[in-house]
Amino acid sequence: MALPQRARHTGPPDGGWGWMIVAGCFLVTICTRAVTRCISIFFVEFQAYFGQDYARTAWIHSIVDCATMLCAPLGSLISNHVSCQVGIMLGGLLASTGLILSSFATSLEHLYLSLGVLTGLGFALCYSPAIAMVGKYFNKRKALAYGIAMSGSGIGTFILAPVVQLLIEQFSWRGALLILGGFVLNLCVCGALMRPIALKEDRKTAPEFLEQDYVSEAQKQDLKRMSICSPLIKAWSHECLCYCSWKEYDFLLMPGFMMLAVSILFMAYGCSPLFVYLVPYALSVGVSHHQAAFLMSILGVIDIIGNITFGWLTDRRCLKKHRHFCYLFAVGMDGLCCLFLPVLQNFPLLVPFSFTFGYFDGAYVTLIPVVTADVVGTSSLSSALGVVYFLHAIPYLVSPPVAGWLVDTTGSYTASFLLCGFSMIFSSALLCFARLAKNFKRTHLQSLSNDTGTKQHIWTNGAIAYSVTAELDQKDVEFLAVDTNSYSNR
To answer: Are residues 87 and 196 in contact, defined by beta-carbon separation less than 8 angstroms?
Structure first.
């Protein structure tokens, strides 16, 4: 099957088919992130049916999130070297199969493999390639485009949370998982919308190296004459592929990306347990099942407002240069919300929490790909996002079971929520200090550059300045000689 031809552009079109890409990414986030969040609604059902504690049941949600993020580089690899369309369609089939097999589960271990590993792998093949495609189609309105695309997570949570609760009541948790498996097949439709685009700044893959300027005409002619199966061609192609692969991930050594990566580890640890334990916590303080599901719906719909408004605001000229600090502010505010959650023990108090946490969660989720693009550039965005979401994997895997173990040990959710809050605040503070240090260093270098420029300006004023200086030096010598003679005569 011939792969689709890539339309060539000198820069991101900032519109046109790009809005269809945004619509496709919007649906992808509904089918991946919103469905993942709604797995927490099954938490109590799984716990009651299999008779397990908090920690063991929490592994289901952890494995889904971990597999989604751990396999994100695989999704980027398929997108870069095969096709974004192929990757997303394949991911949709795997995710649907995992959910359908989960409806026949007879143990938690069965759910670990089907709902956790298989569905998570399918989501991984869809999520990061779809997000990277938005960055390829937009530049000037990138934050707004990401805000709309990522709002699918909030809208999906708002709609799916009460629907999933209703499906569980009507068809049991098995029937609800079976229906979700059919719903997730819409990812294949989303994949069909992802039309490839080739930008001028994109690095070429090995088969396209013949078009590069650094390959001489003589080499091009020789290579065209030779058989495609010759050993020389194979060796040369292998070297080109290795070079291309290294250049694809050379951003890993950038200090700015390293600090962003460390910050993301702590941020991911703090944000995951809340989506797992918000519904069980609400039920533990006397909130009804429908009200607990409604809290997730509120969080989801306010998440949408955070996606779009923060995306629009950070595209304004006054804030475009301060996207990093907007991201840090949003992460820090979510951390503060987690610190106050243990004292909110009834439905009227939990509603404002869902509003606040949902808004800032939508804000920083929108800015993750924007900030990543600012650090590494558009040409490396797909690979960089694969690494960024890969870094979410271990915290997503570890944090819900650790939080569940703290609940089982202490008998309350206080320690779990405090640990989440401090982790997110530390993530924000770490990246803030790194950014301030970078700005200070840049200012210092600019001042040194200005001083050097002034000295060079003096020395490059031509022969006049030199001759004037020489004449002054000569007069000083003559004056000194006269003064010395007069002193010796005395």
So the answer is: no
Average pLDDT, the chain: 77
The backbone torsions φ and ψ at residue 199, rounded to the nearest 5 degrees and listed phi first, read: -95, 155
Give the percent of the chain with pLDDT over 90: 17
Check if the beta carbon of residue 93 is closer than 8 Å to that of residue 203. Answer: no
How far apart are the C-alpha atoms of 282 and 290, rounded to whole Å? 11
CA distance linking residue 221 with residue 296, whole number of Å: 63
Q: Which conformational region is residue 481 in: left (phi greater than 0), alpha (psi within -120 to 50 degrees), or beta?
A: alpha
Distance of alpha carbon 360 from alpha carbon 333, whole angstroms:
7
**Mind giving me the DSSP string for 120-184?**
HHHHHHHHHHHHHHHHHH-STTHHHHHHHHHHHHHHHHHHHHHHHHHHHHHHHHHHHHHHHHHHH
What letter represents residue 98's amino acid? Answer: G
Q: How far separated are the first and last CA of the chain, in Å rounded?
A: 106
What does the pLDDT look like over 331-364, one tens digit per residue? 999 999 999 999 888 888 999 999 999 889 888 8
